[in-house]
Write a structure and sequence with these properties.
The complex is a heterotrimer of chains A (about 80), B (about 120) and C (about 240).
Chain A lengths: L2 H22 L3 H21 L3 H33 L1
Chain B lengths: L1 H21 L3 H23 L18 H4 L3 H32 L13
Chain C lengths: L1 H27 L9 H13 L5 H9 L1 H24 L16 H23 L8 H18 L7 H25 L23 H24 L5
Classes of the chains: A mainly alpha (about 80), B mainly alpha (about 120), C mainly alpha (about 240).
Subcellular location (chain C): Cell membrane
Protein name (chain C): Cation:proton antiporter
Pfam families (chain C): MbhE, MnhB
Chain lengths: ~80, ~120, ~240
């Protein structure tokens, strides 16, 4: 196995493991963080696939802004759920 | 190498759809959709990849004259760039609706929304 | 209930197995291209001469398929507007501020003051250099929005001025369309970048109107992302 192939396989495996964690975990916050991690690993994959533009976009938007959108909504829901009880 | 990436992308689509279809919490369903979204991006980019070629940027490494023989397909990359940006918009929209549902009913469990059930 | 749940589970798994079979067929029958197809070969051969841009992906997004980008930015604008509308109708209980994050400490506040100008500068750099290096308006806009995000985190009680964001958004959108129409009048068609001289290949001020258009796209996208983040973060009692 050559080095790029090894690296690609490793990052693809890491991406799938992070996706599995996002699916099976009980905590929604951990799921959101794992989904961000999946995007981060995917952006490294894009770099190996000679797509630096896409890698930058995925890292900035997919793993950065999306995660924060989720956490903003999660924070609002947690606070209001607590208020009602 | 691109076959590995493509297989991982397909697997990610399946995992994401499985999450979106089986979870009961609406936020977890949205997480599943974002995973499937990322999988589609990986598949599309790996379709454009060709072994032994460089990224579609005409700098010192790739002279303009030999570009057609030296670079990979730039079209899927442009498509995926668009798709990522739209994907964030879709996620924001889904989250806004999920929050609105939560405000209306006080629950994020999809089993509590029975209007369309039969 | 558990019985019905398992039936549903089996149905989902069966559906996904079918889909996986389709994917497997695609993957097994996939033959990678050895030559660029006609469209890609055209872009590879003519981008440097026609648009003067080094980054072919940027040339496709801004010039060759510029109309699509205009549509994309419009979709993003609609999304931001719908998010604001949907969240604006739901009245949050009074008294709650911010998104439930703790008030930020001295470290975050000071760090934000130091980092924010650098982040904004980096966003502008990425947006304007889109025709030379990887990057461009969408990435630059996301970086600008992450600067705004830092500002939101450092001071949850602070409200941005909606008016400034809306102004930036609409002015840059209008200028984008105006440049496109100028392209019809002065050059080959809508959003043609040759209304400005192509300049020296590889210089910052080259590739005609591409840096200008991408900077406008960056401003517009950054304003839209900021408004989305803000309307999801803010409570409506302001």
């Amino acid at each position: 196995m050559t080095l790029p192939l090894l690296a690609t396989t490793g990052f693809a495996a890491a991406m799938l493991i992070a996706a599995l964690v996002a699916l099976v975990t009980r905590s929604t916050a951990v799921a959101v963080l794992s989904a961000g991690l999946v995007s981060l690993f995917a952006s490294v994959l894009f770099l190996f696939l000679a797509a630096p533009d896409v890698a930058m976009t995925e890292a900035a938007i997919g793993s950065g802004l999306t995660t924060f959108l989720f956490f903003f909504v999660l924070g609002r829901i947690r606070r209001e759920g607590r208020d009602e009880q | 190498m691109h076959l590995v990436a493509m297989a991982a992308g397909f697997a990610l689509i399946l995992l994401g759809l499985y999450g979106a279809l089986t979870h009961r919490n609406i936020l977890r369903m949205i997480v599943g959709f974002t995973l499937a979204n990322t999988g589609v991006h990986v598949v599309l980019v790996s379709v454009g990849y060709m072994p032994g070629r460089a990224a579609p940027i005409l700098d010192g490494a790739v002279p303009v004259g030999e570009a057609a023989a030296r670079i990979i397909d730039p079209v899927p990359q442009a498509l995926v760039l668009t798709a990522i940006v739209i994907g964030l918009g879709i996620t924001a929209l889904m989250l806004a609706y999920a929050y609105r549902l939560f405000r209306a009913r006080g629950s994020l469990d999809i089993a509590d929304y029975t209007e369309l059930k039969w | 209930m558990s019985n019905r749940f398992s039936i549903r589970h089996a149905a989902v798994l069966g559906l996904l197995a079918l889909l996986g079979l389709a994917f497997w067929t695609l993957l097994a029958g996939y033959v990678p291209d050895t030559e660029l197809n006609r469209t890609a070969a055209y872009y590879a051969e003519n981008t440097a001469r026609e648009t003067g841009a080094q980054n072919i992906v940027t040339a496709i997004i801004v010039t060759y398929r510029g109309l699509d980008t205009l549509g994309e930015v419009t979709v993003l604008f609609l999304t931001a507007a719908i998010v604001a509308l949907v969240l604006g109708q739901s009245k949050a209980p009074r008294g709650g501020t911010g998104s439930g994050f703790l008030p930020s400490g001295e470290l975050l506040a000071t760090g934000t003051r130091m980092l924010l100008p650098i982040i904004l500068l980096f966003g502008a750099y990425v947006a304007v250099n889109g025709h030379l290096t990887p990057g461009g308006g969408f990435q630059g806009g996301a970086i600008l929005a992450s600067g705004m995000l830092l500002l939101l985190l450092a001071d949850p009680a602070r409200r941005f001025s909606h008016r400034i964001i809306a102004r930036v958004e609409s002015v840059s959108g209008l200028a984008y369309v105006a440049i496109g129409v100028l392209g019809v009048a002065l050059a080959g068609g809508f959003l043609d970048n040759r209304i400005l001289p192509l300049g020296q290949f590889g210089a910052l001020l080259s590739a005609g109107a591409i840096p200008l258009i991408y900077a406008l796209v960056g401003l517009k996208v950054g304003a839209e992302f900021s408004s989305m983040l803000e309307s999801l973060e803010e409570t409506e009692d302001s």
